[in-house]
Amino acid sequence: MRIAVPLVAALAAAGCGGSVPFHHSSASQAKRTTTTSGVSSSTPVLTTHTTSSAGTAARPEIVNGSFYSPAVKGTLHYEIALPPGYATSGKRYSVLYVLHGLPSSAEAYKGVAGYAGRLAATNDPAIVVGAQGARPGDTDPEWHNWGPGRDWDTATQHDLVSYIDHHYRTIAKRSGRGIIGISAGGYGATLIAIHHPATYQVIESWSGYFVITDPDGRPLDLGSVEANADASAHANVPKLKREFARYGKTFFGFYIGTDDAYTDFIADNKRLDRELTAAGIPHVFALYPGAHTGSFWRTHQDQWLDGAVDRLDPPT
Fold this sequence. Notes:
CATH topology: Rossmann fold
Largest sheet: 10 strands, mixed
Shape: globular
CATH superfamily: Alpha/Beta hydrolase fold, catalytic domain
Strand order of the largest sheet: 2-1-10-9-8-7-5-6-4-3
Strand content: 15-25%
Number of strands: 10
Radius of gyration: 18 Å
Distance between the termini: 45 Å
Order of helices and strands: HHEEEEHEHEHEHEHHEHEH
CATH architecture: 3-Layer(aba) Sandwich
């Protein structure tokens, strides 16, 4: 059965909150096969940052909020981490939206403090938002638009982004937004960004997949060729080069472990890499030693988070 990966569980397992020390990837740990703009290399892409000590690093402010979402015809919850200095700086900040795994509980969006704490410790100030992607009676909607009252794609891309932009000091444009996700959240982040290319400049999938699935991780038939194509990243590849080219900069990275229990997910990632390479669409695909576990994400989260925020606008 496909593993639910709520943010709080993923972060706790990954040692991202409280007193558990964080780990940076060493060069040997980070060595993997990477494809960028169709060129393969085993050289790790590393970024150097100044890290504050645990005793002196300022902590993000964590706020839980909610609002009415027309797309799901009900209350949509979120958790937001405001970077240190937000209250007094007067600056606007880029936003990183984080999507959790599925199936999950209605509170799986909670737990972004660990991610935000890492960004604060590495002097990468940004707002981090945990998006709600499940609720009682609807535990595995796949971040997909199913119809009136159950349109999770629209709730995440339109309703949530609009609310955050109107209630917090964000850089309210494409170059100030990124979307990342774990497991099913990786699928959601990718498809939402593909459906709405004007919204996000950075897209990352962590141990995700690229066709809609049932709770057991099997491809789901939506009943028509058109519906299945709309829910597949593969089917959208032919238009991506044109869509991404309209905006100048787009970073699309997807990463998975070589020992992921969901072997179909590994094959799906490799397939998308081949398709994007053949189409000449810039991207970064990485295979690392590891499985579909918190320890795998812990090993690489600093690099992936920093890589996302570094490609967004700095505070202004």
